[in-house]
Amino acid sequence: MSKGTETRARILAAAVETACLTGFNGLNLQPLAVRARLTKSGLYAHFGSKEALQVAALERAAALFQQTIVAPAKAEGAGLPRLRGVFHRWLEWPGRAGLPGHCPFFAAVVEFDHDEGLVRARLTRLFRDFQQVIEQLVASAVRHGHLPEGTSPTQFAHELLALRYAHHWAQDFMRDPQAMMRTREAFAALVGRGRNVI
Amino acid sequence: MSKGTETRARILAAAVETACLTGFNGLNLQPLAVRARLTKSGLYAHFGSKEALQVAALERAAALFQQTIVAPAKAEGAGLPRLRGVFHRWLEWPGRAGLPGHCPFFAAVVEFDHDEGLVRARLTRLFRDFQQVIEQLVASAVRHGHLPEGTSPTQFAHELLALRYAHHWAQDFMRDPQAMMRTREAFAALVGRGRNVI
DNA sequence: ACGGAATCCGACCGGTCGTGCTAATCTGCG
DNA sequence: CGCAGATTAGCACGACCGGTCGGATTCCGT
């Protein structure tokens, strides 16, 4: 790894950490440069614009999410075990990836809600891709008989994201000590729903 | 209404609108002053600090929410109809209150996630109060036999917020045209859950 | 109508932001 | 070693930020 790409990696590591703490709009050049042991202009030369830096940090965070939360599913039993594994690891993101703070993607949803641009476009794609991953896991669980026939993967994925979102609210913002328990119970209810009507 | 309080009301009206579009950190003094037909220092004299302005705007938004979304429940049938009414009006907030943009409270969750302060403290209280309102509606629905005996109001309120959060994500950020349909279906499933095991 | 208080303005402060530009330094190859 | 190109530092810019202050203006009770 050449010097340049190593520095770039150091910058992005600091950027992802910062994004977890203060969002992607909080990626201010001066403090970030200090964290990455550079000057502001030295850092800037690697990206050329703040938006490019934000996109790169988003990409890096997504890669971390993929390898920390999604990828381990390959080692789990197909169907419901795999779905349950991804969801429960998802609940521990971003801590499980060694990152501080809270989920940067949820922060980005608010930050780039109104203003268009590259970051928003990339973010919606990332969400859609992950949504499809969930849907495939659900469909697989249905095929394995772990979920009732007729379960809509899209609807299920939507409600799963709802649970993760509410968990973020209860755990990270409200600091409710019972947040995890409630989320697990809600997941169990979602999975168990309809079982008795088979 | 004296001149001062009238101006203050004009400022807060502009502030709530702005908060719906750019969040409470987006309440920058200069642009807000222009919207309220004042100079920056003239506006500032009414609050004394940006934090006080944010708190006042939060208070105003909460009052609007109360009278637009919650209060109409008094005219609805006790129990499930009342709960359903509040939830469906909630889905149309803040548009139903004549406000542009999206829910300012969800934006505030991200903005004040990490930094402590008056705004965060006030916001958690507002959330807790509304959560209690929901829990009482749920408890009433249980008493009327509209929801299964043994339904936990706290758990139900948690999952209801989850649905509203996911709706915000799907509708406002992802701009999914089927968001409303999916949210209504999820609500129906949440209400109907367990019915068949009574 | 008058005087004191409430209200508002305009100019200004120190600081931070993203963004360019040039010059110095460093790295890796021949 | 020496040179070319990649890499970083240094510096300055215009814009915007929240906040301050003195004075002008307007309001309102008497």
Describe the secondary structure blueprint for this structure.
The structure is a homodimer of 198-residue chains.
Chain A: H1 3-22, H2 29-35, H3 40-44, H4 50-70, H5 80-91, H6 104-111, H7 118-143, H8 153-173, H9 179-192
Chain A binds a DNA duplex (30 and 30 nucleotides) through residues 2-4, 7, 28-30, 38-46, 48-50.
Q: Helical element count of chain A? A: 9
The protein's oligomeric status is: homodimer
Ranges of chain A where pLDDT stays below 50 over 5 or more residues in a row are none
Give the largest chain-chain interface (CB within 8 Å): A-B, 36 and 36 residues
What class do helices, strands and sheet pairing of chain A give? mainly alpha
Note the main sheet of chain A: none
**Helical residue percent band of chain A:** 55-70%
Strand content of chain A: under 5%
What is the radius of gyration of chain A computed over CA atoms, rounded to a whole number of angstroms? 19 Å
Q: What would you call the shape of chain A? A: elongated
Q: What's the mean pLDDT score of chain A? A: 95
What's the total number of strands of chain A?
0
For the record, give the distance between the C-alpha atoms at the N and C termini of chain A, rounded to a whole number. Answer: 56 Å
Order of helices and strands of chain A: HHHHHHHHH
Describe what you observe in this structure.
- Chain A is elongated and about 55 Å long.
- Chain A has nine helices and no strands.
- Chain A has helices at 3-22, 29-35, 40-44, 50-70, 80-91, 104-111, 118-143, 153-173, 179-192.
- By secondary structure, the first copy, chain A, is mostly helical.
- The model of chain A has no long low-confidence stretch (mean pLDDT 95).
- At the A-B interface, helix 6, helix 7, helix 8 and helix 9 of A face helix 6, helix 7, helix 8 and helix 9 of B.
- The structure holds a DNA duplex (30 and 30 nucleotides).
